[in-house]
Design goal:
4-stranded antiparallel beta sheet; alpha+beta; Alpha-Beta Plaits; about 30% helix
């Protein structure tokens, strides 16, 4: 299979997803995964696609440059190699770690360091910093896979201690509970 991962970055506006997916459709590419978000005023999208065997990365990239450069979008494409093995935590449970607190440098680094030290994988991260000292205005949501074989009490304790040192309120919930509580 001929797979590629492409990243598209640029100033947000309506029609970016339509432009990207139209090119992929015209070139007979199949979209397997998409992750797209707006970071303040900037569009960020990642696509994993299966390409037809007769399409090379250079041709795909050239087509994106032709069509997206006028929109001032930047594209990066690389092959998704078969020999890369996805990280998989052997036995784990999905949790959501939420922090709220005043904005300052080092918040993501501090919390993610504790997460990494325990071999916990961050599967999704959303951070919204509006600045200032209003705790409710600055939120980080980490979706993580916590291995069953770690000392979870020590992990939670270290997270709480780090959050306290950073003046953050922290919540750690199983993803199923988080989704149930936050269901609209």
């Amino acid at each position: 299979m001929n797979k590629a991962i492409l990243s598209v970055l640029g100033h947000d506006r309506p029609g970016i997803v339509a432009a990207v997916t139209a090119i992929l459709f015209e070139l007979n590419c199949n979209i397997e995964n998409v992750s797209q978000t707006i970071l303040q005023t900037e569009f960020s999208g990642s696509f994993i696609v299966t390409m037809p065997q007769n399409l090379c990365l250079e041709d795909l990239h050239e087509r994106f440059i032709e069509n997206l450069t006028p929109m001032e979008l930047h594209v990066h494409i690389e092959p998704l190699l078969k020999k890369k093995v996805a990280f998989a935590t052997r036995q784990s449970e999905p949790f959501v770690i939420t922090t709220k607190g005043p904005d300052r440098q080092g918040l993501v680094a501090g919390i993610s360091e504790i997460i990494a030290n325990y071999g916990v994988n961050i599967t999704n991260l959303q951070a919204v910093f509006k600045g200032g000292d209003e705790p409710g205005d600055n939120i980080m949501i980490y979706e993580v896979d916590i291995p069953n074989n770690i000392d979870q009490q020590a992990f939670y304790r270290d997270l709480r201690e780090k959050a306290k040192s950073l003046t953050l309120d922290i919540s750690i919930q199983h993803r199923n509970i988080f989704e149930t509580i936050n269901r609209i």
